[in-house]
Amino acid sequence: MSIGLIGGTGLNRLEGLEVLASHAVDTPYGRPSMAIEEGVLSGRKLFFLHRHGGSGGPIPPHLVNYRANLWALREMGVERIFAANAVGAISPSMMPGKLIIPHQLIDYTWGREHSFDDGSSGSLQHVDFTHPYDEELRGEIIRAADDAGVAYIDGAVMGVVQGPRLETAAEVKRFFQDGCDLLGMTGMPEAALSRELEIPYAAVCMVVNAAAGINDAPISMDAIRATLLSETALFVDLLEAFLKQ
Ligand code: HPA
C-alpha cells in the first residue's frame, strides 16, 4: 500500500530517503507546501511532503494549504498517511523522551480552509470523525514501535491550536480542563481532510516542550530545537521499523 509521510517541524527533510522523483503537483485548491518527493526508505516506496515547505521560508501553521497537500498526496496514489507533529505537553506523563501516538483530538483552530465541501463541489458530506485517527494504522505504528524498542505512549488527546504564538498559562489550564494531554498547531484540518478523502491517517507526536505555565521555565526556541533533534531521531527509528513491517 502506498504511504504518504507528512513531516512537520524538525522533519523538513527525511534523512536516508533515496529520492527517485520530485512531483510539482497543482490542485484545484492551489499548490501544496512543496513538490512531493517520491523515494525509497528502508526498502519501501513512500511519498514525502513537508507541510511547512515553502521556498521562501517555513509556511506557518495557520497558512499551510492543507487542502492542496492532501489532494496532492491523493493524486500521487497515497493510500495511507503517517503524519508527524511537534507538540507541547500538558500531561506530566508525556514530557520529552517518548513518542506519543494520539487517539483523539480537539480542534481549536479557526479561519482555515477545513473541508473540501466549500459549496462548489456539488457534494456535501458529513464525515464520521468519532475516531479521528485510523485504528488499524495506529496499531501498525504501535507494533513498529515495539519492534524497534522505541519508547512511546499509546493514546492521548491532542488539542490543535491556531498558533503561531504559544499559549498563555490560563489557556493551557483551560485546555487541560477540556481533557487535552498535548498541544500542537497542525493536526487540523489535516486529519479531517484526510477522512473526507477516505485516506486512513494516523499521527505520531514528538514532544518538544512542556506547555506554557506547566513548569517555571520560559519556553525557548533554542531548547525546542535541541529537544527536536533527539525526538526526530526516535521518530525516524519508528518510521523505519514501520516501513520494514
Ligand atoms: N503549544 C502548541 N503547539 C506547539 C507547542 C506548544 O507548546 N510546542 C510545539 N508545538
UniProtKB/TrEMBL annotation:
E.C. no: 2.4.2.44
Pathway in which the depicted protein is active: Purine metabolism; purine nucleoside salvage
Which residues are listed for phosphate binding in this entry?
A: 9, 51-52, 186
Q: Which residues bind substrate?
A: 185, 209-211
This enzyme catalyses: S-methyl-5'-thioinosine + phosphate = 5-(methylsulfanyl)-alpha-D-ribose 1-phosphate + hypoxanthine
Assembly information from the UniProt record? Homotrimer.
Q: List the protein's name.
A: Probable S-methyl-5'-thioinosine phosphorylase
A GO molecular-function annotation: glycosyltransferase activity
The miscellaneous annotation reads: Although this enzyme belongs to the family of MTA phosphorylases based on sequence homology, it has been shown that conserved amino acid substitutions in the substrate binding pocket convert the substrate specificity of this enzyme from 6-aminopurines to 6-oxopurines.
Q: Which organism is it from?
A: Congregibacter brevis
Query: At which residues is there a site annotated Important for substrate specificity?
Result: 167, 221
Gene3D superfamilies registered for this protein in UniProt = Nucleoside phosphorylase domain
Keyword Transferase listed? The answer is yes
